[in-house]
Amino acid sequence: MHLIYKIIGISLVTFAFGYYSKVEPINSYVIKSDITGKVVDVNRSVVATNYKGVVIKVDSYRDEVNLKNYQNQVKNLKDILKTQKETMLRKKDTYESYKKLKSKSHYERNLKFYDYSNSLITYNQTKNSISNLEANVATLKDTISKKNISFKNYIYEIDVHKGDYLNFGSIIAKTMNLSKKKLYIYVPINKINSIKNKKVYINSKLSDFKIAYIEKIADSKFVTSYKVKLIGNYPTCSQIVKVEFK
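Below the sequence we write its predicted structure tokens.
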């Protein structure tokens, strides 16, 4: 999974005859790398699309070799563990039998107990080794999957090239969530109540935009106004639109 940082959208100006704002995606993201490695392939043709397949591939050859080695070790140890378990259970049964036999000396019982205990320790050590190797397998699988990079949202920009070396935190792309759009307008404080519960018109047409929030602190730039965020649907980003309340 990649490190994602939300970009705060830009908002715009107010005129006496209406409110004007720039249409922005509901969220924009800067995607940063959470893996390291050399970029071996980049599909730049998917810029400006919602492509969901692999866009950037990072070298994973060494990881894949290590993964195969760990998987083989797990398989071999599981075969060994099966034999060790049979041996351990047999020695346990022998010890339990010796405990009940009065004909067996305390020394003989102790020998069987130590024999069983050592067998149990060996068995548990192998189990722990398998658990550690399986953890390594899971980590490598996760790393390999992260080296086949895809994106959830609209791909606005790809910031790496074939041959680049990624470090943790390297910027790899910028994406946008276009499922909704947002607008910011600045409404004079004395007019805030007049826009509440009214329908929002964009470029003189009724829209589905709704007020998401009103900042009840005067804006540092527009000192006599409150900043208002609206969310709704609009076909085009980056367009300057007229916002009215009726």
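Residues 112 and 178 are 71 Å apart (CA to CA).
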